[in-house]
UniProtKB/TrEMBL annotation:
One of its GO terms (cellular component) is sarcolemma. The keyword Membrane applies. Keywords: Cell membrane, Membrane, Sugar transport, Transmembrane, Transmembrane helix, Transport. It is a multi-pass membrane protein. Belongs to the major facilitator superfamily. Sugar transporter (TC 2.A.1.1) family. Glucose transporter subfamily. One of its GO terms (molecular function) is fructose transmembrane transporter activity. The chain crosses the membrane at residues 58-79, 91-111, 117-139, 151-175, 206-229, 294-315, 330-352, 359-381, 387-405, 426-449, 455-476. Residues 501-524 are annotated as: Disordered. It is found in: Cell membrane, Sarcolemma; Cell membrane. GO terms for biological process: D-glucose import; dehydroascorbic acid transport; fructose import across plasma membrane. Residues 10-480 form the Major facilitator superfamily (MFS) profile domain. This is Solute carrier family 2, facilitated glucose transporter member 5. The gene is Slc2a5_0. It catalyses: D-fructose(out) = D-fructose(in).
Length: 524
């Protein structure tokens, strides 16, 4: 059952870490024209000449792309940090990155420096790279097996809430402006190159530095509250060898005294892994017994990002404009898409345990591939057939629903479930790196792809969705309501390897033999 300590630790770690990942993904979209204008003015003050359009575009694309690049660096820090500082310790240390970046971004305008914003985006990326991997690992290791999926989707839910919060606060009537108050609408259409906004618009009390600086608040809250909650029991028992602390942590999280079954299951997992020791990323790639698990997380993480979710969000504004939505209302449409995203991810929290992971992933990729295909058609025909622009709006909404129920939340849950304690940190490091590299690649390549192929770029996304879906259909097993050891046995059959290695392990640990047999017969 769900206990209060478990619910609180899920909410605190997801709000303090995952929320900010989402927030920083979309926070610079709304105030972009004002920030570019700030870059321009700062440069003019320093050099006496206006910035040329090409240089400004370069600076802006750096501001945007440094975030996923930082995310990649953050992912590479996962393995050493969670093994040395623990899961909870890593989250607490990670808050320092976010608070530092928030202070730098919030004061950047007073300090008249735009370089600091670009640097802060890297720091914020490192924070998000760690957060996006450590939170699912931490919560997955704490949850009982019947709630692991639901709690595993909570970080993704908070990512979508973060995106929505940034969209709402970024409305030009709130903080997405150059002062603390609303602007005449036509200013926000300012072009990235050259051009200034009128001087009277730019008071000292800018709205956007506040918008960027707000990201420090959830971190501060997490830094103050998370120390009162237990560390991951699996980490305490298997990696630290401290049964007493692990037992106390479990009793507190489960709300009852008798946690012997779970402790036994952890010991069993510990024994089955003793021989291999801690996996580094290199040994993960060369170890035959984890081959299909590794390929699966790489395919799922790449499929999640390369399925075009960023492209669809990027195109959304234009799709709505071509359907006749007023340009002044488009930001409200974006907010409503963000809200659909939150609602559908919330739905995933409630249905992932009843329907299972596989169904949600498959259904999600089916919806995404279908809407990409129909969207290509609709965008090509919208100038000739009047109602096609409405069909493309429907496609965008269906795509977002599809992505929110499966491809977005489930892969991180699956990494937690498909790997045992010794290989999990290395697996998250690989999965996280693939996630951020793919994210960075789409950000870099999509503009060129869109310029060259136009609406046909969605056919590439469609093909990637179909390929990922077929892989999941044939290879990825259902993992709901199974212990980590049971899932490990299913994957061992697929790897055609671990069962005889398992026998050797059992021979070297005679006391493990009986339990192995018992578990095997029960899981069969």
């Amino acid at each position: 059952r769900m206990t209060l300590p478990l619910a609180l630790v899920a909410l605190i770690s997801a709000f303090g870490s995952s929320f900010q990942y989402g927030y920083n993904v979309s926070v610079i979209n709304s105030p972009a024209p004002y920030m570019q204008d700030f870059y321009n003015r700062t440069y003019l003050d320093r050099t006496g000449v206006p910035m040329d359009g090409g240089f400004q575009t370069l600076l802006w694309s750096l501001t945007v792309s440094m975030f996923p690049l930082g995310g990649l660096f953050g992912s590479l820090m996962v393995w050493p940090m969670v093994n040395n500082c623990g899961r909870k310790g890593t989250l607490l240390i990670n808050n320092l990155f976010s608070i530092a970046a928030a202070i730098l971004m919030g004061t950047s305008e007073l300090a008249k420096t735009f370089e600091v914003i670009i640097l802060s985006r890297v720091i914020m990326g490192i924070f998000a790279g760690l957060a996006s991997n450590v939170v699912p690992m931490f919560l997955g290791e704490m949850s009982p097996k019947n709630l692991r999926g639901a709690i595993g989707v909570v970080p993704q839910l908070f990512i979508t809430i973060g995106i929505l919060a940034a969209q709402i606060l970024g409305l030009s009537s709130i903080l997405g402006n150059a002062e603390g108050k609303a602007q005449p609408q036509d200013l926000s259409e300012g072009s990235p190159g050259g051009g200034f906004l009128p001087a009277d618009v730019l008071c000292l009390s800018a709205g956007w530095p506040v918008l960027l600086g707000l990201t420090g608040i959830p971190s501060l809250l997490q830094l103050l509250t998370l120390p009162f909650f237990p560390e991951s029991p699996r980490y305490l028992l298997i990696q630290k060898g401290n049964e007493e602390q692990a037992r106390r942590a479990l009793q507190r999280l489960r709300g009852w005294e008798d946690v012997d079954d779970e402790i036994q299951e952890m010991y069993q997992e510990d024994r089955s892994e003793k021989e291999e020791g801690q996996f580094s990323v290199l040994s993960l790639f060369t170890f035959r017994g984890l081959r299909w698990q590794l390929i699966s997380i790489i395919v799922m993480m790449a499929g999640q990002q390369l399925s075009g979710v960023n492209g669809v969000f990027y195109y959304a504004d234009r799709i709505f404009e071509s359907a006749g939505v007023q340009s002044s209302s488009i930001q409200y449409v974006t907010v409503s898409i963000g809200a659909i995203n939150v609602v559908m991810t919330l739905l995933a929290v409630f249905i992932v345990e009843s329907l299972g992971r596989r169904i949600l992933l498959l259904a999600g990729f089916v919806l995404c591939s279908a809407s990409c295909a129909i969207l290509t058609l609709a965008l090509n025909l919208q100038n000739t057939v009047s109602w096609m622009s409405y069909l493309s709006i429907v496609c965008v909404i269906v795509y977002i629903i599809g992505h929110a129920i499966g491809p977005s939340p489930i892969p991180a849950v699956m990494i937690t479930e498909m790997f045992l304690q010794s290989s999990r940190p290395a697996a998250f490091m690989v999965g996280g790196s693939v996630h951020w590299l793919s994210n960075f690649t789409v950000g870099l390549v999509f503009l060129y792809m869109e310029a060259g192929l136009g609406p046909y770029s969605f056919l590439i996304f469609c093909a990637i969705c179909v390929a990922t879906m077929l892989y999941i259909f044939f290879i990825v097993p259902e993992t709901k309501n199974k212990t980590f050891m049971e899932i490990n046995r299913i994957m061992a059959k697929r790897n055609k390897v671990e069962l005889h290695e398992g026998k050797e392990l059992q021979d070297s640990h005679p006391q493990g033999k009986q339990e192995e047999k018992k578990c095997l017969s029960s899981s069969e």
